[in-house]
Structure formats: C-alpha cells, structure tokens
Amino acid sequence: MQQIQSVPVQIFDLAVRLFHWFQVVLLAGLWYSAEQEWYGLHQLLAYTLASLLGARLIWGLIGSETARFRHFVPAPRQLRQYLTNKTPVAGHNPVSALMILALFLLVALQFASGLMTTDEVMTEGPLYSLVPDWLSSLAGSWHELGFNLMLGLVVVHVLAALWHQLSGDKVIGAMWHGRKPLPADTIAPRLLNSVKYFLLVVILFCGLMGWQGSAVWPQFLADLQTIQAM
Ligand code: HEM
Ligand code: HEM
Q1: Residue of the nearest CA to atom 42 in ligand 1?
Q2: What is the pLDDT of residue 41?
Q3: Where, by residue number, does the polypeptide cross the bilayer (predicted)?
C-alpha cells in the first residue's frame, strides 16, 4: 500500500493563536476576580477580552484565510462529508467550527450581560441603570448560568481537541505553533501579517476605556491595594 507523505503546513496565524490562549487566561482571571469580588480587575479583564474578541470577529471578515468565517463555517453538506470521513483539515474542521461559533457567542453574551449586572454592593455594569428591571435581572441570572454553560462546552471542546491530537490530527500543536502535518499535496492557506489584528485590539480597548475608563480605573486601583495588603 502506498504511504501518503505528511509535511508540516502553517495553517493558523499569530492573531488566531494569541487570541485563543489570551482568552483562556482572561476567562480564568475573570472567574477568579469574581470569586474574590475584585470587580475593578474583573471589569478591566472583561474589557480586554471584549477587545480581543471584537477584533477576532472583524478578523473573521478581513483576516487570514483560515481565520475567516467564510472559510470555516460549514455548509450542512461539508458537515456530513466530514462526519463520514474525518481527515485532518487545513484549518478548523466543520464540527469544531460549530463549537467555536457557540463559544464566540457565549463569551459575547457573557460580556453583554456583565454590562447590565450588579453585585448589589459597589459595582454596576454601565448599562444596568439604563435597561428595564426585567432585562437587568435576566442579565444577572444569565451572567452566572451562561458562564457555567460555557464551562460545560469548554470541557467538551478540550476533550475533543485531546482526542484529535492523540488520534493523529495534531490540532493542539496547530493552535500552539500554527503548523499541522498534512498530506504533501496540501495547498497552504494564505496567512496575513497579524499586526492589523493587534491594531484593532488596541483601537477597541482605547474606545472602551474612553467610555468606561474613568469608572473602572479607581475600582481597579482599590483592588490592587487590597491585593497588596493581603
Ligand atoms: C476557556 C477555555 C477555552 C475557550 C473559551 C476556547 C475557545 C476556542 C475558540 C473560540 C477557538 C477558535 C479560535 C479562533 O479561530 O479564533 C478554539 C480553537 C481551538 N481550541 Fe480552544 N478554547 C479553550 C480552551 C482550550 C484548551 C485548554 C485547549 C487545548 C487543550 C484548546 C484547544 C483548541 C484547539 C485545538 C482549537 C483548534 C480547533 C480546530 O483545529 O478546529 N482550547 N478554542
Ligand atoms: C466575558 C466577560 C465576563 C466573564 C467571563 C464574567 C464572569 C463572571 C463570573 C463567573 C461571575 C460570578 C458569577 C456568580 O457566580 O455569581 C461574575 C460576576 C459578576 N460580573 Fe462578570 N464576567 C464578564 C464580564 C463582566 C462585565 C463586562 C461586567 C461589568 C461591567 C461584569 C460584572 C460582574 C458583576 C457585577 C458580577 C457580580 C454579580 C453578582 O454578585 O451576582 N462582568 N462575572
């Protein structure tokens, strides 16, 4: 039988990879800061994550080939084909793409609901007093429930990634260094320089700080003092 030769192909740019791992770290920080009731830090991390996600969604329209929604959001036919023949893909595979869309949505909802939430002590999201009571109370419930739902999906996501990695489709390696072993005749996807992505992140972050910085920084500095005094 003829052996198909594999070669490492660069499939993910720096923007996609750094977005992914920063997101993991920031979500852990968001959970921990809420547990400790450090809501200044919590909001600062949330605005940072929102900037990374907002820029990632724009990158999904103008970025590298494998980052674009057009490239990875599957049609039902592609999904069926993949399910009958699960070969490594030069980008996100169609099943993982569905999970990725769900995680994008849940993180965005988490951020939006946070803006309408209060801890009923010191911290109010900036939209809390602007929306009707039923909406802020729904947002408050969702802020807790949505996070737990997201954790459930993350467990499935990580188990699926480990399963692929161990069965020869090196997806975790690809999300880390960008390269995946693929058949030698694979056409490498077109990857762009990620500088524009990081510029977008900075622009969005400055916009959010222009909007909320004066409310967030004093709370964040108070949190820092609490942390230093521990
Ligand atoms: C809070 C935890 C996590 C969240 C919210 C999350 C979310 C995501 C998102 C949104 C993407 C798409 C990246 C993009 O195109 O921009 C992705 C891809 C990926 N993630 Fe995660 N992730 C998490 C943790 C992890 C961990 C711990 C691992 C590894 C053990 C992992 C492995 C992967 C892999 C391998 C891909 C690429 C999948 C593919 O090739 O289609 N993720 N993840
Ligand atoms: C993606 C971003 C966010 C994540 C992952 C996140 C996560 C969390 C988590 C896990 C909790 C604890 C929930 C509980 O057990 O009650 C929490 C509470 C809270 N978050 Fe966020 N959050 C985010 C964004 C925001 C934003 C943008 C704000 C406000 C501007 C905010 C304000 C709050 C407040 C006030 C609480 C306390 C709620 C209560 O005491 O019931 N969060 N957040």
Answers
A1: 158
A2: 98
A3: 12-32, 44-62, 95-116, 145-163, 197-217
- Ligand 2: centre distance to CA 83 (Å): 37
Is 97:67 a contact under the CB 8 Å cutoff?
no
- For 159-185, the pLDDT digits (tens) are 999 999 999 999 999 999 999 999 999
**Residue 166's pLDDT is what?**
96
Q: What is the pLDDT of residue 214?
A: 97
The whole-angstrom separation of Cα 124 and Cα 120 is 8
Ligand 1 neighbours (beta carbon < 6 A) = 16, 19-20, 23-24, 27, 56, 92-93, 96, 100, 103-104, 154, 157-158, 161, 171-172, 174-175
Nearest CA to ligand 2 atom 16: 144
What digits encode the pLDDT tens for the residues 54-83?
999 999 999 999 999 999 999 999 999 999
Does the residue 189 lie in any domain? yes
Strand, coil or helix: 86: coil
Number of domains in the chain: 1
Identify whether the C-beta of residue 64 lies closer than 8 Å to the C-beta of residue 189. Answer: yes
Looking at the CA of residue 106, tell me the nearest atom of ligand 1.
5
Does 210 map to a domain? yes
The parent domain of residue 62 ranges over 6-229
Contacts of residue 132, Cβ cutoff 8 Å, sequence gap at least 6: none
Does 1 reside within a domain? no
Look at residue 155 and tell me if it is in a domain.
yes
Mean pLDDT over all residues of the chain?
Answer: 96
